[in-house]
Every structure is written in structure tokens, then in C-alpha cells.
Design a protein that fits this description.
This is FtsX-like permease family protein. The protein has about 400 residues and is an alpha+beta fold. Helices cover about 55% and strands about 20% of the residues.
Length: about 400
């Protein structure tokens, strides 16, 4: 019952000094809202990055020469040949779902008076089964196109509308220059990929297209990069190490001569960076909690001074030291708790509004809210303890004489 009375006394004191109480809470409000907003924005960004990498395929991987091992340049025998690719695929038939040289080229093209640029990526058969894309019309590059080195091309919907003013130009041709030779590529398919947050980061004004990789090879099929899609049920880091070490072994190279980069490891790196930034900025924002705690201590000391006679009267009527201590401690905790609740709502609101402008779903972590509010309560106890102890130790006779 005494605790309930102390809560009522605390609320009465807060109501009687609304502006002072609000200013006291302000440091807590700013600190809590900042921490929650920053961590929520960081968690939302991680979620978006994860979704984007999933669209590329978390089992996507690139094998390439470790350029740090070749300060004097690369010899021809260091490159990946068709025989190396066949050997790797045969050695790991259950772990390699797709493998092809990673090769691309750019070319201008013109249809009537419409000019534009194309970025042509060389792929093996059925590339769309591994990369998240939707075939709207026609088909993707198939095995016949690759084996026959046929002049075929798959374009995206934007390119189809731009060059042909039609979403379905399958069967029509695009004139491009490949390896200094003019070729007419027949359109066999039109695809579409969902919009990505990374689209704005790409400065290229070229349209992305796909062609059979052999037609991009100049005079020799050897390459320095391989693109793979692997067994997604296995650890990508372990598979990458196995593949690169196997290639190093069959080509008589140092075990570290070939290396890899997987979508999984790239996402992990980005998430680590985002997590570190969130923690660092959140820690800076949390400093305002300490400032808010000092504000609580300052106001509670003022409150003790103002209510010295009240304390004297209560003690003369039989209030124990622990009762006075509890009274002021509860008041500081309530001030801190109210600030924490307001700060939580404000932080969630800031994160939601900020993410809505970026068209990103906000991710609120309950654990962060619990931690932030719990920390604010601890701040209230810690910084309210000294003023409460000072009030509790007042001599009742001296307190009654206080003017």
C-alpha cells in the first residue's frame, strides 16, 4: 500500500511541475528514441540487403585468380580453360548446379532512329533457373545456343519497350559489335527483374542482356573468372575453399592461388558493416541517456530542497528513513519510465516514417525496446539514488526549521 501511495505522490509532484518534469525527461526521451530509431533503421537495412542478395541467389559464387599472388602478371596456363571447368563440374556433380565463364561486353545498337547501349552478359544454358528473373516472353539461352555458338540474345522488358515499342519483340534482331565484328543477334526472350534498391547505384545507361557465352570469347576460351551456382544446402564458404583448392591442385599452383567470393560472404560483410555502424551510432546516442540521468539527479536534488519541510513533517509523524528513500526513488524512476515510454513511441515513429520514405518495411526489434526501457529505468534508479538518500538522511528537526 505504501508503494501505491508513493506512486501517487510522485505523479502529483510531476503534475504540479509539468514543464520542469518534461524538460527533465527530455534527455531520456532523446536518448531512447535515438537508440531505437537507429537500431530499427539498421535492422531494416539488413533485412533489405538480405532480400536483395536472395534475389541474386545466396548460392551464387565467383571463382577467380588471387591477384595478390600474381604481382608480375598472369601466365596463360593460370587461366581457366574449358577443360578446367569440365574437371571441376565432374569432380563436384552434386555441389555445382551451374558453371560458366564470367564474361561480358558492351555495344551500341540502333533500331531505326532509336539508339542505345547494351551490356551483354555471357551465360550458359538455363541461367534463369538460378537467378531470380521472370521470363515474360520466349525463353532463356539454352544448351543448343551455347553448343552451337548461336547469335541469340535475351533482353529485358525496358529494352524491348525502348527499342521496339513493344513488350514482345521475340524473333526480331539487334545489331551489335562483338570482338570488333558486326553481328545480328536474334531476340529469343524477354525477361523482367523486380526493382532493387541497388538500381540507383548503377550509373550505367546500358540495358542488361544475356547471350551465349561462347560468342563473347575472342580467340581463346580461357578466362580468369568463373560464375557458379552451388548446392545451397551446404556451407558456401566450405564449398568455395574446396573448389579453389581443387583448381590450384590440378593446375599445380599454391593452394591460395585461386580464391572465391560468394553472395553469402558479401552479405555477411555488409551486415557486419551495418551492424557496427548501428552499434557505434547507437552508443553515441546512448550518451544522451547519461545526460538525461544527470538531469534527473539535478531536478531531484532541487525537489529535495524544495520539499525539506514536507520531509521533516513526514519523519516527525513516523515515516522511516527507508520510506523517504523509497518515495524519492520511485519519483525518479517514474520520471525516467515516462521518458522511456515516450522515447520508445517516438523512436518507433521516426524509424517507421524514415523507412516509409525509402519504401522499406521497418523492422522493430522487441529486445532493443526492452533493453532501452530497462536501461532508462536503471538510469532512473542510479541517478535518483543520491537525491533519495540525501532526503532520507535529513534530520527531522532541522528539516522542520528549514525555510
Amino acid at each position: 500500500m505504501l508503494i501505491f501511495e508513493n506512486i501517487l505522490l510522485a505523479l502529483t509532484a510531476i503534475r504540479s511541475n509539468k514543464m520542469r518534469s518534461f524538460l527533465t525527461m527530455l534527455g531520456i526521451i532523446i536518448g531512447i528514441s535515438s537508440v531505437i530509431a537507429i537500431t530499427s533503421i539498421g535492422a531494416s537495412a539488413k533485412g533489405v540487403v538480405g532480400k536483395e542478395f536472395e534475389s541474386y541467389g545466396m548460392n551464387n559464387m565467383y571463382l577467380y585468380i588471387n591477384w595478390a599472388m600474381t604481382p608480375d602478371g598472369v601466365d596463360y596456363e593460370d587461366l581457366f580453360t574449358p577443360e578446367d571447368i569440365e574437371a571441376l563440374a565432374a569432380r563436384y556433380p552434386d555441389d555445382i548446379q551451374y558453371i560458366a565463364p564470367s564474361i561480358s561486353a558492351n555495344s551500341k545498337t540502333k533500331i531505326g532512329r532509336t539508339e542505345g547501349k547494351l551490356n551483354m552478359t555471357g551465360v550458359a544454358a538455363d541461367y534463369n533457373k538460378y537467378k531470380n528473373m521472370k521470363m515474360l516472353h520466349g525463353r532463356m539461352i539454352n544448351k543448343s545456343d551455347v553448343d552451337g555458338q548461336k547469335d541469340r540474345i535475351v533482353i529485358d522488358k525496358k529494352a524491348a519497350l525502348y527499342f521496339f515499342n513493344s513488350e514482345n519483340p521475340v524473333g526480331k534482331t539487334l545489331g551489335v559489335i562483338i570482338n570488333e565484328e558486326m553481328k545480328d543477334l536474334t531476340i529469343v526472350g524477354v525477361y523482367e527483374i523486380e526493382a532493387s534498391i541497388f538500381d540507383g547505384m548503377r550509373a550505367s545507361d546500358s540495358y542488361s542482356t544475356y547471350v551465349p557465352y561462347p560468342i563473347l570469347e575472342y580467340s581463346d576460351p580461357a578466362t580468369s573468372y568463373l560464375e557458379l551456382y552451388t548446392n545451397e544446402k551446404k556451407n558456401q564458404n566450405d564449398l568455395g575453399n574446396e573448389f579453389s583448392q581443387y583448381l590450384s591442385r590440378i593446375k599445380g599452383k599454391d593452394p591460395q592461388f585461386y580464391t572465391f567470393e560468394s553472395a553469402e560472404s558479401q552479405m555477411g560483410t555488409i551486415n557486419n558493416i551495418l551492424g557496427t555502424l548501428s552499434i557505434a551510432i547507437g552508443a553515441i546516442a546512448a550518451i544522451s541517456l547519461v545526460v538525461g540521468g544527470i538531469g534527473i539527479m539535478n531536478i531531484m536534488l532541487v525537489s529535495v530542497t524544495e520539499r525539506t519541510r514536507e520531509i521533516g513533517i513526514r519523519k516527525s509523524l513516523g515515516a522511516r528513513t527507508s520510506d523517504i528513500l523509497m518515495q524519492f526513488l520511485i519519483e525518479s524512476m517514474i520520471i525516467s519510465a515516462i521518458g522511456g515510454i515516450i522515447g520508445t513511441g517516438l523512436g518507433v515513429g521516426i524509424a517507421a516514417i524514415g523507412m516509409s520514405f525509402a519504401h522499406i518495411s521497418v523492422v522493430i526489434q522487441p529486445s532493443v525496446i526492452v533493453l532501452a526501457v530497462g536501461f532508462s529505468a536503471i538510469v532512473g534508479v542510479f541517478f535518483g539514488l543520491y537525491p533519495a538518500r540525501k532526503a532520507a538522511k535529513l534530520d527531522p528537526i532541522e528539516a522542520l526549521r528549514y525555510e
